[in-house]
Amino acid sequence: MEMNGKPDVRDWFPSEDGNPEQRERMMELIEQLVRGVDELKNPDGVNLKGEKQRNPDFYGRLASQSVIPSEGVPMQEVNEELLKLLHGHPYHTKYFFTNILPMASIPGMLGMLTAMLVNGNNLWDVYGPAGAEAEVRVIAMMSKLVGYDARLSGGYTTWGGQGAVFSGLRIAIAKYDPDALKHGVPNNLYAFCSEAAHYSLLKSVEAAGIGSDHLVKVKTMPDSSMDVADLRSKLEKAALSGGVPVYIVATTGTTDAIGIDDLAEIRAAAEETAGRFGLPCPHIHADSALGGFFAFFNDYDLQENPLRFSAGVLNMLKGIQRKMRLLPLADSLCFDFQKLGQAPYVSSLFLLKNAADLRLMDLEADETPYVGHRGYGEYHTGYTLECSRMASSISMYSLLLSFGAEGYQRLLAQFLEVNLRFRERLAAEIPQADIANPDNPGISTLIRIYLPGSPRFSEEVGGTCSARDIERTNLLNERLFEKLGERRDRMFFGDTKKHLLAGSAEGQEIPLYVSKFFVISPHTRPELVPEIVQYLKACISEVCEEFSVSLAKS
Ligand SMILES: *Cc1c(COP(=O)(O)O)cnc(C)c1O
């Protein structure tokens, strides 16, 4: 279609009438992109192929070169430009172990596409009925999975595990003081999480105006779970000084070590202390952004073992199941479908045991003049921080139907199986390495290496090592980060400088540096483990040798 020699503006849009010509044009453009990515794939490395040089001057040059073209170019040519963005992009091959950065699955992408084809606004069911329907369904499905009463529970899709932690905090404040929405946040409120918690709560207390001085960090146990005795004493301390604990974030699946807090113990500590001081029980949010998907095993029969998982995986599942069955003790929780749910970004679900809590946050009808009236039912999202919302629930719905409970069980069990074999092989092949999260049956294995004669992991967490020894081992591990980093186009490992706090003999608390083997790609199969360990072994030998030489010189 041409008008005055220019393309018709309608060419940029899907057709109005469903004509096959426009559909074919659109499908060709999509096919061009999908084929283009396929042509860049390299299963022997971690990055897509391509020419991109991302040197220090890269962004500066982009900024100076980029201007809006006065006339647009054909979409095929734009697609070529889009594909160039992907050159050298990390891709989830079997060698991708860096962190909880999953691949977007086909059902997840199809759900997003479905949402885009009508572009409904999830703000209001009249604007986005498909998103509203999917959201109500997904909330009920996930409520039943974790053991909430789906007739009473509620929630919404939001911006990440971070958004869920923040949503929980807003509700926590409003539950304690419903007028805080009007007169501002009282200055004696406190929030609690463990030292291994994600920084989401830090940002939330800053943003909500509670202030990070009122965020209390609770000690962790060697398995990275919250030390509940320490929680108890810190709740008491806050209450004794006239403070009000309003919010406890229990991490059910920490981001590095996959430690799981015990919700039964946390709830008991919260209720007892609150009762003793005549305060209401704090709102307890289970930050299950990462770990929540292990609730898919809550009903798995470990005796019958219908999916024939290995004995090692069953053993891991036993510990996971015990703690995940406690999830319904939380007042709210989160499922990050963009993590283990295998959906594209951004797709996280905030789930609330009592939907009625949302009323505390809701705006009055006269404050939302655009929406909310004459809807189909009860659906009205004046309580979300976002105004317009994407219908990511459609992607979640697509995934839950495609994978089913069994599909999630098989995928997650594969991640566990790879870790299990990795741990066995590591122990057998690499004497310099210790596993720094040995008690966490999870999908990530933390690796810490040592020079001969240095005190090992179990001694470090025992609190008897000198600061000098721990710091020297940290330095050695940092060299390993560098070595693995230089070669990350071959295998992409993660690392962290904040695993656990080891007490030194001198009484300092020192975080341990560890490398991270995070299994997240469905293409990482158990058979690959020997090759990975051989690779790691070579890198570790080089690092230890180089480090010893540099020590001898200094
Ligand atoms: C990833 C993560 C978050 C943050 O989630 P986003 O989706 O990145 O906002 C919060 N808590 C935990 C435990 C996480 O693993």
Describe it.
This protein has about 550 residues and is of the alpha/beta class. Among the domains are: about 25-90; about 415-554, Alpha-Beta Complex (Aspartate Aminotransferase, domain 1), CATH 3.90.1150.10. Helix content is about 40%, strand content about 15%. It is built from 15 helices and 14 strands. The strands form three sheets. It has a seven-stranded mixed β-sheet with strand order 4-10-9-8-7-5-6, with helices on both faces. Strands 3-13-14-12-11 form a five-stranded mixed β-sheet. The longest helix is centred in the last third of the chain and has 37 residues, at about 395-430. The model has no long low-confidence stretch (mean pLDDT about 95). Pyridoxal-5'-phosphate (PLP) binds next to helix 6. This is Aspartate aminotransferase family protein. Belongs to the group II decarboxylase family. Keywords: Aminotransferase, Decarboxylase, Lyase, Pyridoxal phosphate, Transferase. Its cofactor is pyridoxal 5'-phosphate. GO terms for molecular function: aromatic-L-amino-acid decarboxylase activity; pyridoxal phosphate binding; transaminase activity.
Task: Give a brief outline of the structure.
With 554 residues, the chain is of the alpha/beta class.
Distance between the termini: 75 Å
Number of helices in the DSSP assignment: 15
Q: How much is the average pLDDT?
A: 94
CATH architecture of the domain at 416-553: Alpha-Beta Complex
The CATH class name of the domain at 416-553 reads Alpha Beta
